[in-house]
Amino acid sequence: MKRGITKKIITALMIGGLMTLGLGGEMTEAAVQNTNPYGLVYGNAITHNESGKVNIRPVEYMVQGIKVSANLYLPADYDEASSKTYAAVTVAHPNGGSKEQVAGLYAQRLAELGYIAIAADARYQGASGGEPRLRDYPSNRIEDISGMVDYLLTINKIDKSRIGSLGICGGGGYTLAAAQTDKRIKAVATLSMFNSGRVRRNGFQDADVQGIQKRLQRAAEAREKELSGEIVYEGFLPPNSTDEQLRAKMAELPENTLYRDGIEYYGLSHRHPNATGSYTTESFMKLMAFDVEDRMDLINQPLLMIAGEKADTLYMTEDAYVKAIGTDNKELFMIEGASHIRTYWVPEYVDKAVNKLSVFFKNNL
Question: What is the DSSP string of 109-121?
């Protein structure tokens, strides 16, 4: 398939795949029955709490009057009776993802390094509250990250001067935005950062700037439909698709591209019922006015941005990084051979990212 045609297909799927979504988030046929008691779908996930090992604690708290569902990961030496305090890290999940996927994996790995880590479902998504379901407003996602910081500060074992944040994919863009103004975040890192506003506005790889007004009009029409209770959705995972249909879609796209790898990860290998890959069409009205690059100069904290060297989303990390002129303590770290979503689960790439995060947070928290 020619590259130009491929880009157009990916752009259409990323920003224009209109759908009516089954809100039950049905799993595909080959999604293995999840027997993990915490619903975790990543490799080597915790199955039970055990003394002397990293433990997981499901928690709930409120952000702006809406319930948030989160998992708190506690280091192996965590002891309520001791006088020791801990550094902590918030972990924000990708667009359309859930806390049980890559966010949970990296939170668990951070806890293995000795940090208290929290992975929370964004409001309106996952197991968190909020109606209509799958609304994706940047202001909500940014406040969710500050809300994780708020919750961590209620834990007396946490040193409030040593709180960092990690954001993955869309959660990376929103984490950068949170760190721009929330200076309780003392160090900020991203993995495979995705600038949601830029992509929803301009198309993937800025390939559909001409379609901006058309998408805004569609958003306005969707908002009007919401007045009568009809919710319209966008997304790259067709609801109720069989494994064969998803594999057929994958076969149409080149390897190591975001959409192809996204089908594999979210639809097949790491499927979770709360991760639909979708959002309300009306969200375009807020998303398209957002761009994390606009205020990157406000970040004065230590900054680490990690991306796959082969990622077709790399331009987003590079462009935001250049504009982070408010900090001298910054680094762009490339994982050789990795595409965007492969950094979520391939052990070799995850290990490289975690090793880099280990050094970064040790030096800056």
Answer: HHHHTT-EEEEEP
